[in-house]
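Q: How do we represent a protein-ligand complex in a form that can be generated token by token?
A: Start from the inputs.
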Amino acid sequence: MAAQRYIFNTAEAGEHRRLLEQAQVWDRLTFRRLGEIGVGEGWRCLEVGAGSGTVVRWLADRVGPTGHVVATDLETTWLRAIEASNVEVREHEISTGSLGDSVYDLINLRLVLVHQPDEQAVLDKLVKALVPGGSLLVEEYDMRTLPACSPPDDTWRSVGGASVEFLEKSGLDAHLGIRLPGLLETAGLVDVDAEAVGFPRRIPEIPAWRTQIVEIREPLIATGLVTPEQIDEVIAGFDDESCRLVVHGPTMVSVRGRKPA
Ligand SMILES: C[S@@+](CC[C@H](N)C(=O)[O-])C[C@H]1O[C@@H](n2cnc3c(N)ncnc32)[C@H](O)[C@@H]1O
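Then emit the structure tokens for the protein with S-adenosylmethionine bound:
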């Protein structure tokens, strides 16, 4: 299995917390979008790069005992803790592994495509694995909103700018979200529907971004766009319940499309 360019350490215990905090931010959007698609009893679903498994649990509940949910990831420790008879966990590398032909009514992936060297090849593979009429939901960030905050704060803007620079230096497209509608159409999907969502918050209310910044502290400093003191100042804001700084955070672009029947 070829090593993939996932930039976080999947084996590290802190990764589980990071994934759960991130899921807490985005699950309500993802669940709503899956509900709009109409996921229901008896559906066969695949979640790629399922991480902590919050969406897998939701899907398993929705499809019921007559449905089936396959959950894949490079690291499956947390997925294996899910106790549901309709869930099957597979250690699987999406860029190199195969998925089969016309198997799933729904395929879902969030914040996974960005880590793949050839996004279009992955999407083509996912579309092949859908049954005719089946749906794909893909969600990825557009980081343009990361430095946005109120009141204006140069330190936060520097951290946001350094984060985008770090991702791009790592070879990731920090603005993949905006490209998704085009990628899904090129993959042959129809009824492509995109929505872009952000959740601006006071920073003490959003531990997910704190954890993220702490984890990439050194690479952020290495960009030369932010100093250790500025990072410490931002972390202190996260830890101060009275901090009034509202940050926009990344925008999630949620795009669904259907394989022609
Ligand atoms: C940012 S996390 C998102 C987790 C989950 N989808 C969510 O949104 O809560 C990315 C996940 O994709 C997995 N991943 C990254 N590259 C992968 C690959 N090439 N094949 C399968 N899974 C991969 C990682 O192990 C990680 O669990």
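DSSP finds eight helices and ten strands in the chain. The longest strand covers residues 130-142.
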